[in-house]
Specification:
By secondary structure, the chain is α/β, with parallel strands linked by helices. 43% of the residues lie in helices and 23% in strands. It is built from eight helices and seven strands, in the order αααβαβαβαβαβαββ. Strands 3-2-1-4-5-7-6 form a seven-stranded mixed β-sheet, sandwiched between helices. A hairpin with a 2-residue loop joins β6 and β7. α2 runs antiparallel to α5 and α3 packs parallel to α4. It binds S-adenosyl-L-homocysteine, 3,4-dihydroxybenzoic acid (DHB) and magnesium ion (MG). Magnesium ion (MG) binds next to loops.
Amino acid sequence: MMQERWSAVDEYVAGLLVPHDLALEAAQSASDAAGLPAIQVSPPQGKLLNLLARSIGAKTLLEFGTLGAYSTIWLGRALLEGGRLVTLEADPGYAKVARENIARAGLEDVVDLRVGAALDLLPDLHVEGIGPFDFIFIDADKENSPAYFSWALERSRPGGLIVADNVVRDGTLADPESEDPKVQAQRRLHEMISAEDRVNATTIQTVGAKGYDGFTIALVDG
Ligand code: SAH
Ligand code: DHB
Ligand code: MG
């Protein structure tokens, strides 16, 4: 009952405020056809990522967890001239679909999709001198969100934003007894941020087409 209403509001908002983008729609259809799980950000959330990246004039972006590149395309659309987006995906099958979707969106020259476990790929970025980053979206395996956040903090430029998805998890974020490793990890992430004086952060609970969840936004001190 509530889920229907949340989805209806997402559709209403998207209908008026989220413009049709043929490449995003094609990416979604191709991802569905290839059997990828439908766990991408919703259209209003994708637009939020785009607005956040644009609002800070982000030129160097990093994404953990590409899936079919739906959020990647939203972020890629925010890039300024000369900007670059690195996105990391562990699953080669998902990455293949993502690569086609990125090309269809005309973003193949600005999106650098790398395949492997993110923690294995990060040292390469460092060695290649990619970064510091203006905007980092953490949306891969939730168990590693605290590790990704630690890395992100070291490789963010002052004034940069770090956004972590799926932190509220049906409200289980507030349950200290939860035995779910994803919940425990998101609680650790919050404790880590709380003890960290280089960032200012908050977490926003969301309802919508994807149920009840939420995201953390952290502004790295400038
Ligand atoms: N950001 C996407 C959704 C990502 S879903 C969007 O909103 O459109 C999470 C993705 O993280 C999945 O594709 C999964 O394969 C990937 N993933 C899981 N573990 C990973 C790891 N260790 N390193 C990189 N990617 C990983
Ligand atoms: C899952 C992952 C996501 O990034 C998301 O937004 C929703 C669900 C998942 O792994 O189930
Ligand atoms: Mg997510």
